[in-house]
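Review box. Two proteins, two foldings.
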Amino acid sequence: MSVLTLKGPHWVTVRQHRRALWALPAAVAACLVAAVALRVLSSPRGTLDPNIWYDLRPSALEGAGRGMLILPVLIAAFVAGPMLARETESGTYRLALTQSTTPKAWLASKVSVAAVVSAACAAAMIGVYRFGWAPVAGAYQLSWADRGTYEATGPVVVAYCLLGVGVGAVVGQWIRRTLPALLVAGAVTGLVVVVFGFLRWSVLTPVTLTTPLTERPETGVPRSAFLMESGLLKATGERMPEWACTSPSGGLGPCAADLRVTGRYVDYHPYAHYWLTQLIESAAVLTLAALALHAAFRVLRARRG
C-alpha cells in the first residue's frame, strides 16, 4: 500500500501507524526466508544433518502454525488500543475532525487500512506455510486437521484476522482507553478462536465405518482421514467404549453375553471435509466480523453523531 496514492484520512492513518503496518510484511518476509532456508538445507545437496532436520522442521512448522493462531489476537489488540482507543483517550481524533473529515470517514479509514494489510499478509503467510509444510504434510501434529496446521493452511485464518479488525473496532470505540481496550479485544478474539476450534468438527457429520467384533475398522479408514471416535456396537445399535470388553492383559477380551456386543465402529472425517469445513467456518467468522464492524459504527454514531 503506497502512501503516495492515498488521500485524506487513509493517508494520515498509514503515516501514523507505518511502523506497525510494516511489521506484518516484515514478518512474512522473515518466515519466507526461514522456510526457504530449511528446504534448501534439508535437500540432498544441503548441509543440514538429517537427524537435526527430522526434529527441526516439524517443530518449526508446529510453532509457526500455533503462531498463526495468535495473529488475529494481536491484530484485534492493535486496532482496539493504539489505533483507536489511544486517539480517543488523548483527544487527537479531534484534530482529524477539523480537517473536513467526518467521524464515519475517520473510523472507516482506520478499519479499511487495518483490514487490507491484515488480510493481505495473512494470505501471504498461508502460502509461506504451505510451502514449508507440503513435504512433511501428515507428520505427527502436522496433519491437515491438527490445531494450528488447519488454520495456517486455509482461508479461515484470513477470516479470523478480519474478525480481529472488527472486534478491535467495536471494543476501541466502546471502551476508549488504550490498555483496557487492547486487553479486552485480544481476549474476545482469542476466545472466539478457541471456541470455533472446539466446534468445527461437529458441523459436518463424520463418516462411520463398522466391522464385526473380530476385525478392526481402523484398517479400512483412509490414511489421510481424521479419526474422531471408536468403540463397540451392541445389537441394538447402542455404542459402548472399547474398554467395556478389555481383558486383564489389556487387550480386547470376550464380552459378557448380556452386553450383546456384535461389532465395532469408528467415526472419521475424510480429507474431503477439509475445504468444506474451511468454507463454513470462514463464512461464520466473517459474519461475526461484519456484525462487529456494524456495531462499531453504531457506537460511533451514538457517541459522536
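Next protein.
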Amino acid sequence: MTHRVLLDVDTGVDDALAILFAVAHPDIELLGITCVAGNTSLPNVVANTLKVLDAAGAPPIPVAGGAVRPLIEPLRSSHVHGEDGLGDLGLAPSTRPVDPRHAVDLARDLILASDGPVTLVALAPQTNLALLLRQYPEVAQNLERIVFMGGSASGGNATAVAEFNVWHDPEAAAIVLDSGVPAFMYGLDVFNQVTIDESDAARLTQGSSVSGRLAGALLSFQMADPETAPESDADAAAADAADGAAESPWGGHIGDAGALCALVDPGALTIERHPVRVELAGFARGQTIVDRRRRSGEDAVHGIHSSVPAIDIALDVDVDRFARLFLDTIARLP
C-alpha cells in the first residue's frame, strides 16, 4: 500500500532519521516537506532538512519554511540537539532550492493537487498544521489522517506531564485535534522504547553508504542535558568514577522515525482509541489528557463533562520489529 505523505518537521536529530526513512521506504511517496521552528530555529530546520535529503540521495522534493514561532508563546528551542539542531555533525551546506511558498501554502497546494488522500505526518510542534487547517479548511477533504509524534498517555519530557512538541505550541495541537481530521498519536509511551543496538549503529557508521553513516552518527549522538552535563573532561571522569560507569549510557533512539514505522507497520503496535484533549493552562499546560475510563465519571453525572474527540493512540510497541524495519529501510539508501 502506497502512502502519500507530507512531512512537517523541525529537523533535529530524530527528524533527520525520519526523513531518511521516508525517502527510503518503498510504500511512502514523499510529496513534500514543510518546516517549522521547534527543535531549533526555522533557518536551521530548513538547512538541516536539505542536508539530510542530500545525504539520502533524494530526488527533488519541495521543501518550504513555515512558522518561526508558536501561535502565542515565544520560540523556546530544545537544547538537546546541538548548536545547529543536527548534532553539530558539520554536514556540508546544500544547494537544493527552497520552495518560495510559505509552508502553509505549499501544503495546501500539494494536498489539493494529490490524486489520492494524503497522510500528513507531523514530527514537530503543530503550528503549521493549525495555520493550514484554519486558513485552508478545504484541505481536510483530501487528508486521510494526521499522524503526529507528540503527546503522552503517561508522563512528559518538557515538563512532568507535557511532551515537547505539544508543550511548545499547545494551542496549535488543540486546534488540530479539534479539526475533525482523523488523527493518530505516536507519543512518548512508544517513542522512548524503540532503540537500535549500539553494534548496529556502529556498523552503519563504519559502512560505505553516505546515508548509513549519517544514520549511524545520528543514532550515536548523545542528547545534551545542561542541568546534569559535566563542565569539563575532568568533571566527566569524576562523574563516571562516582557512578561506577566507564562511559555514557547508550541511547540509540530512532525517535520521530517511529511515527513513520507506525504508518507502514501498525501491526507492531498496541493501539487504543480514546478521547484526548490538550491542557492549555497552569502547571499542566501542554499535557495531552487521555481519557482511558471505561465508564462515565462524576464529571458526566454533574454536567461538567465536555465532548472531546477520540483518536487512535499507540500505547505499546514490538521494539525488535520496529528496529529491524528501520534498519532494513535505511539499508535501501545509497
